[in-house]
Amino acid sequence: MDMYGLIWRRLPGGTAARVVVSLLLIGAVAALLWYVVFPWLTPLLPLDAI
Fold first, then answer.
1. Where does the chain cross the membrane (predicted)?
2. 3-state DSSP helix/strand/coil percent for the chain, to nearest 5?
3. Is residue 49 a part of any domain in this protein?
4. What value, to the nearest 5°, has the Cα angle with vertex 12 and ends 6 and 13?
5. What is the DSSP string of 16-28?
6. Cβ of 8: how many Cβ atoms within 10 Å?
7. Residues 19, 26: contact at Cβ < 8 Å?
8. What is the b/e burial string over 9-35, where b = at least 16 CB atoms within 10 angstroms of the residue's CB?
9. Is 25 part of any domain?
């Protein structure tokens, strides 16, 4: 059983509603990474060491 199929079956509504909810979930995860995780992680990475 694949993870994406499980998520797709758990989403409510028909195909159009599932696509919209999937896009909203992807956007929410991207925003969480962009505004929370990456700023927290940046000081811990040796990006200036060339």
1. 20-41
2. 75, 0, 25
3. no
4. 120
5. HHHHHHHHHHHHH
6. 14
7. no
8. eeeeeeeeebeebeeeeeeeeeeeeee
9. yes
The three-state secondary structure class of 45 is coil
Q: How many residues does the chain have?
A: 50
Q: Does 50 reside within a domain?
A: no
Range of the domain at 10: 3-44
Residues 40, 19: Cα–Cα separation, whole Å: 31
pTM of the model: 0.73
- Tens of pLDDT, residue by residue over 1-49, are 688 889 889 999 999 999 999 999 999 999 999 999 999 998 888 877 6
Residue 34: inside a domain, yes or no? yes
